[in-house]
Structures are given as structure tokens and as C-alpha cells.
Amino acid sequence: xxxxxxxxxxxxxxxxxxxxxxxxxxxxxxxxxxxxxxxxxxxxxxxxxxxxxxxxxxxxxxxxxxxxxxxxxxxxxxxxxxxxxxxxxxxxxxxxxxxxxxxxxxxxxxxxxxxxxxxxxxxxxxxxxxxxxxxxxxxxxxxxxxxxxxxxxxxxxxxxxxxxxxxxxxxxxxxxxxxxxxxxxxxxxxxxxxxxxxxxxxxxxxxxxxxxxxxxxxxxxxxxxxxxxxxxxxxxxxxxx
Length: 241
Description:
Elements: H1 8-25, E1 28-31, E2 44-48, H2 55-67, E3 70-76, H3 77-82, E4 91-94, H4 99-112, E5 118-121, H5 141-149, E6 153-163, E7 171-175, E8 180-182, H6 190-209, E9 215-219, H7 224-235
Parallel strand pairs: 1-7, 2-5, 2-6, 3-4, 3-5
Antiparallel strand pairs: 1-9, 6-7, 6-8
Helix pairs in contact: 4-5
């Protein structure tokens, strides 16, 4: 298992790079609703849905701009071996087809939670699934991590959705409106967590349909039509004579 090897220089290199990529690829990244208050004395366990290739990068940006914790993000060991740089910004590996290796990653996750300054992100679906698929088909990992850790955590379901609206590029929307303080005894199980996430995704969908854009995390470049209109104004095309 490849552990996280956080490096300040890696963050200094990666943050401006990924922000540039987001501005090129997205019209905007939006946080809907008020983010819930975290207990600073407890570690943070983030459990998002997993519907796009961008999800890990979304978490990185949300953490750097809002949560400001030392982020540890579980990703497939096969991919992490190809892109080892990601371990320098908090990624660590899991091999879900190998029980012993999987248990090693779960133990590592539990150890991450020992430090209240840390944030641990686990995708309970385990694999990419289209946003509309129901049920979400959560795996057992979160419950096992809590059992191995034993202590209390800030448990934060996170809803993420991308939509094409006013631009040729998508907009990304995030919602995390509730924190659950749980430990291995009070955690009500993976089925309960899946129900909480599905309800959160429903609230996120209603907010998007209602036109919410509450807080812009990253603003992309102006859409092509706006840039074209500005260009026409500069050269005098379309002016009334």
C-alpha cells in the first residue's frame, strides 16, 4: 500500500496548476447552502458520492479553500502507482480485490483519524457510478474504519453534481449541510449512511433546479459567447451607425 507523503512543495506546485485546469474546464464551482460547523477537536471523515473523474480534485480544492485540514484521500493503488505524485498531496492506495491489502488500507485510514487536524476522504461507492443510479450501492468500508478507529469523528456526507447550464463547460455543485458526530457504537450502519447521502443529493438537485449559485469556489473563464461579444465590441462589429 502506498501511504500519503504530504509535501509542502507539492502543494505549492499543484494548487495553481489544478486551479488553472478548473478555470479552463468548468464555468464555475459552487458551494450551495451554508457549510456545517465542525468540532475542531475531532477528525473529519468525508463521504462523497463518486460520479466523475474530477471528484478527487474537487475534494482537494474544497479542502484547501474551505476545510483547511490535512487531507488524506483513498484512491485505487493501481492508479496511484501510475501517478505517484498524488501521494505528495495526500492520496493513499487501496487494492479492493485483495483482502489483506484492503485491510491494510482500512487500518491506515483508522490511523489517519487519530489526529484531529486530519481529514479523511473515502468514496463509499468504491467505484465510479453515474449520478442518477439508485441505490448508491455503498460498500462496508466506512463502518470498518470506524470500528478500527474506535473514537468519535465529524462525519460529513458530501453531495457533488456537474451540470451543463449557460456555458459549453459544465458547472460543479457541492453541498454538505449536516455533520454527524459518530463513533463505532453510535454509527447506524452503511445503509443509514447511504440514505443520508441520497437525501442530500435530492436536496442538492432541488437547489440546482431552483437556480442556486450561493458561493463561488472557483470562477471559470468567461464563456465563448461573452468573449466573442467582447471581441466584436472591440473591433466595432454590430455597432449601430
